[in-house]
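Journal club side-thread
Mid-discussion, someone asked how the predicted structure for our own chain would compare to the paper's figures. Pasting it here so we can look after the session.
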Amino acid sequence: MSQERLPKESISQEEGQHAVQTFQVCHPGNWRVKDLSGDDEVGLDFQVQVVDKKHYKALFHVQLKGCNQKKKGSLCKRLNCNQTFYSQELKVTTLNYYLRLQWPDPLKLYHCELESIR
């Protein structure tokens, strides 16, 4: 049987799927998470409502980034040399979009460092 030529999943797509699965399992129990991913989503992965004592208290949006790119010493290469913060590149066009939204609720960037997924 001959090999069919089919689309191939990129490393970035694979990392993104694992980051989404991790976020959905690891978020606090009082978050009500709505998945916004899809063809019509640009830079917004989730909408989160925070529940406190049975009342909805806050709303924010999440842009999720996954990292499986290791460097020497088995640390994510986006982690700075002092291991105190992550550096995440964002496209200027995405930042311009965020600025135009002018929402009263915040946008949070979440970084999910993944174990090796291969």
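Post-session note: The chain has a mean pLDDT of 80.
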